[in-house]
Amino acid sequence: ARRLRAVPPPCPAAGVSQVTVRDALNQALDEELERDERVFLLGEEVAQYDGAYKVSRGLWKKYGDKRVIDTPISEMGFTGIAVGAAMAGLRPVCEFMTFNFSMQAIDQVINSAAKTCYMSAGSIAVPIVFRGPNGASAGVAAQHSQCFAAWYGHCPGLKVVSPWSSEDAKGLLKASIRDDNP
Fold it and tell me: pLDDT above 90 covers what percent of the chain?
């Protein structure tokens, strides 16, 4: 029987710096906001506070109130706005402070965003990204530690990505923003 051994990660090349997942996500958002004027970011504390986890650091100062939008604590409301904007041709990145809070907007995510392309026979695209941290984290207990990736992965019309590395995070976010459906 052949034994599998873990392969150690490659050492970074001389002069190559390590990039955190947070910085990789920030780079992806910055590059996509720069590339396409239809892309915008909305969610709780994403603008003036630079994001609860600093993923959107510097973006509000660079792109302003029309492209990086702080919302009230009303996931159902801002998710509905983002879905409508996507149906109208914009490309929103709808950020949940934690993905647990997406349950407050489950109707908009599943019944409005995920099913619209199919229900319209392909005539209405919904180019939206729902983004946020997901799963267990220290000190947040029952309110923030569930992982809904498998559940969302079983919903027709949604594509679920779970990056492993900084490179994955950046590439998958950019690809998601460019995708014509959620």
Answer: 74
